[in-house]
Design goal:
Layout lengths: L5 E7 L4 H12 L3 E3 L7 E4 L5 E5 L7 E4 L2 E4 L6 E4 L5 H17 L9 E7 L5 H13 L1 H8 L14 H10 L4 H8 L19 E2 L1 H4 L6 E8 L4 H20 L13 H12 L7 H8 L22 H4 L12 H5 L7
Antiparallel strand pairs: 1-7, 1-8, 2-3, 3-4, 4-7, 5-6, 8-10, 9-10
Helix pairs in contact: 2-8, 3-5, 3-8, 8-10
Length: 337
C-alpha cells in the first residue's frame, strides 16, 4: 500500500510564512525563493530538487503567541505547507522532522486548520473510484468521531452525500465520464473552477476530474496538527484506504455497526493493513476518541472502557522516531512519532 505517491497540505499559524520557509530551508540546507503570486508563496528546495511551498489560505484564522496569550494576527501568519510529490518510505521521516521543527519554531494549529492528503489517481478505474466512495460512505460516522472533525470545518469537509452515493450505486457507472457526470450533478458552477463546491467533502474527486487538478484523489477529513505521529497516522490511513479501494473486488456503502466504535475501527484497520508493531502508534491515534472495546464486540467486555486498547496500540517504550511511548500513554498523551 506504500507504493503509491502522495502529497500533503498542512495548514497552521503561530509563525509567519517567511519564518516557516526559513525553518524548512535550514532543515534542507537550501534557501528561500519568493513567489510572485496571489498567495504570497515562498518555495524551498530539498536535496532531491523538489520544491516545498509555503502559501496563504483565506480559511485559516490567523493567531500568534504574545507571552502566554494567544492573540489575533495578520495574514502573514496564515501558512499552508504544500509538499511536493512524495513516497512513504523515502519521505515520511523528512515530513515528520520538518513538522517537529515548525512546531518548535512556534507554529501551532487551531480549529480553522485542516490537513489534506492527495493520492495519486493514475491507477484508479471507474470501479475503484466507486469502491472509494462506498468505503468512505460506509464509515462516515466512524471517521468523523475518530478524527474529531469540528463543526467549524464541516463547510470545508462534508460527509459523503447520501444522494450521490445512492446515484453511484444505482447507475453503476462504467466510465470516468459517467462518474464525472454523477459527481457534478446538481451543481450549477463551471466544473473547471479550482474551488468548485463539490470539492468540500471528506473524499474529493474534483481534484481527479478538474482540468486544474493533478488527477489526484483527495482526503480532506483531518484536523491540522503539528504532531509528527498524528500526521504519520493520517498519511498511513489515507494510503491504506486508497490501496483498499484499488484492490477490493467491490465495496458496499452499508454503514458499519456502531454499538462498539473501537471494535469497528479495529476490524477496518486490520482489513486495510494496520497490523503489527509498525502501526501501533497509528492505531493508538485512531482509537483515541472512540468508545467501546477494541478486543471484544459483545458481552461483558463491552464496558466502554479503554483498558484493552493498550494491547493493540500501546506498550513499548521507544526512542525518537519509534512507534510508542509508554510514559506518554500513562499520562494520557500520545507519542510524537
Amino acid at each position: 500500500m506504500f507504493n503509491h505517491k502522495f502529497g500533503i497540505e498542512i495548514e497552521f499559524t503561530g509563525i509567519t510564512r517567511a519564518k516557516a520557509a526559513e525553518v524548512a530551508a535550514a532543515y534542507f540546507g537550501s534557501s528561500v525563493r519568493m513567489g510572485n503570486d496571489y498567495y504570497q508563496s515562498r518555495y524551498v528546495t530539498d536535496p532531491s530538487g523538489r520544491e516545498w511551498r509555503f502559501m496563504s489560505d483565506a480559511s485559516i484564522s490567523c493567531q500568534r503567541k504574545d507571552g502566554r496569550r494567544i492573540v489575533s494576527a495578520g495574514n502573514e501568519y496564515s501558512v499552508e505547507l504544500v509538499s511536493p510529490i512524495l513516497t512513504y518510505y523515502e519521505d515520511i521521516k523528512a515530513v515528520q522532522e520538518l513538522v517537529r521543527r515548525l512546531r518548535k519554531a512556534g507554529g501551532f494549529t487551531n480549529r480553522s486548520c485542516g490537513i489534506h492528503v492527495h493520492l495519486d489517481g493514475a491507477d484508479h478505474t471507474p470501479k475503484t473510484l466507486r469502491n472509494f466512495i462506498n468505503i468512505v460512505a460506509s464509515k462516515n460516522d466512524l471517521f468523523y468521531k475518530a478524527l474529531q472533525i469540528p463543526q467549524e470545518r464541516m463547510r470545508f469537509c462534508q460527509k459523503m452525500d447520501a444522494y450521490l452515493v445512492e446515484r453511484m450505486n444505482a447507475r453503476k457507472p462504467r466510465t470516468f465520464q459517467q462518474i464525472e457526470a454523477i459527481w457534478y450533478e446538481g451543481y450549477r458552477e463551471n466544473r473547471s473552477s479550482r474551488y468548485h463546491n463539490s470539492r468540500y467533502h471528506f473524499l474529493n474527486l474534483h481534484s481527479f476530474f478538474s482540468s486544474s487538478g493533478n488527477c489526484t484523489v483527495e482526503l480532506r477529513g483531518f484536523n491540522s496538527q503539528l504532531h509528527a505521529g498524528k500526521i504519520r497516522a493520517y498519511i498511513v490511513l489515507a494510503l491504506a484506504l486508497n490501496n483498499h479501494a484499488l484492490t477490493l473486488k467491490s465495496a458496499s456503502s452499508r454503514r458499519v455497526q456502531s454499538e462498539n466504535e473501537k471494535f469497528a475501527m479495529r476490524v477496518l484497520l486490520n482489513r486495510i493493513g494496520f497490523i503489527g508493531d509498525e502501526f501501533k502508534s497509528c492505531r493508538e491515534h485512531l482509537y483515541l476518541h472512540l468508545d467501546g472495546n477494541a478486543a471484544w464486540r459483545y458481552g461483558r467486555d463491552l464496558r466502554l472502557d479503554n483498558r484493552n486498547v493498550a494491547s493493540h496500540s500501546t506498550s513499548n517504550t521507544d526512542g525518537e522516531g519509534s512507534e510508542g511511548d509508554t510514559a506518554a500513554n500513562q499520562r494520557g498523551g500520545t507519542s510524537d512519532v
